[in-house]
Amino acid sequence: MKNVAVIGLGKSGVAAMKLLIHKGYNVFVYDDNEAQLYKYINIFNVGILTSDNMDALDFAVVSPGVADDNKIIIELSEKKVKIISELELGYLYTESDIIAVTGTNGKTSTTTLISDFLNLSYINAYPLGNIGSPLCEKVETLVKSDVAVIEASSFQLKYTDKFKPHIAIILNVTNDHIDRHKTFEDYIKSKIRITANQTSEDYAVLNYDEKILKLTENIASRKIYFSSNLILDNGYYVKDNKIYFACDKKETFVCDKSETDNTCIDNALALLAVCGILKLPYAVAVNTIKKFKPAKYTVEKIYDRNDLRIFNDSKGTNTAATITAVNKMRGETVLIMGGREKGEKYADFFKTVKDKIKHFVFFGENAESLRDTALEIGVNRFTTCKTLEDAFIAANSEISVGNILFSPACASFDQYRNYADRGNAFEKIVKKYYEE
Length: 436
Hints:
- This protein is α/β, with parallel strands linked by helices.
- The protein has helices at 11-22, 34-44, 71-78, 86-92, 107-120, 135-138, 154-158, 178-181, 184-192, 265-277, 282-291, 319-328, 346-353, 367-376, 388-398, 419-435, and strands spanning 3-7, 26-30, 47-48, 59-62, 83-85, 97-102, 125-129, 147-151, 167-170, 203-207, 222-227, 235-239, 242-247, 250-256, 300-305, 308-312, 333-337, 359-362, 382-384, 402-406.
């Protein structure tokens, strides 16, 4: 019987543990949270991973929430124990086709769109991975005719070895999670691993506008490009407010750009590329987009009265996402932002959005740092607050007609458990304010 460790007992780790137990492995577990650790030891009768039994491990499965500098990961690496992700483990037992989506922003929306599109096309598809249910949780019920549509984070991809999606999608790669990856190069390398094992029978859907494109030149899969800024010789693009597909010097009209307004244009282009690869009708993809409802806390309009609109974009945890949200605003806008920094260059951010924002409201752990950076580049239209509630009240005092956009451009972990917890808090603050 092989000995395997599971590091981190969140949703992914527990799914991996259950799969390993069912497959007959001798499982050891570890979590920094002792209450969590002993809960699962008692329920599943598994062992505790210690320095004494590490040498007997065949491999270890790490959850995406566990950082590389965790003492257990360091010790496993020093002992040359093979480390894989929950995504990799699930893949090893998956018989169905896989479509995998990665990128700094837009992963959840694109994964949802593709899943909805396939189901509308009478193909059983399941959105898995970072979007909700871990692959390990679903793997034993998937059959060959199913499609697993996986939202894959950089943390999941970093520890893959054999993972090979039939269609791999890289939406975009901008500075993010540098607090975990330490360098942008490591972050990029993790993202591109999504194509590492593909062959000429597989496809890579790539954003032609991205600077990392040159790093994908030598991948083995067939490359399908899309661009929201350029007219391509081969690929999907926007021209004169219409979307076209070009191949072998032939241009094919796909749809009007206005028909994709329910989602980001890059997400729509990626979906259309998948549609083309699978040789399914574009009309079904367009219909999917029209029916699409953006994920909660993704530029979600939560108030619209008396010409004042309030948007909850708590999922905007990096500057690229917040820039996308700002670009969606029409009319004067007050931006609420702040939280825990992730190693980004906020000076570049302020230079990009300063002319589109009437007033900035900074809150949270890095409020003072954001203020200082704004002043350095000549932005002095701001208020600094400690709490999100104070930030909303300040924003509300700065505008009566237009938009209040809550898009933090930062992680939530200074004051909240995650972006959803933060988004829920903002929603309650707005509701309380207007009810009173």
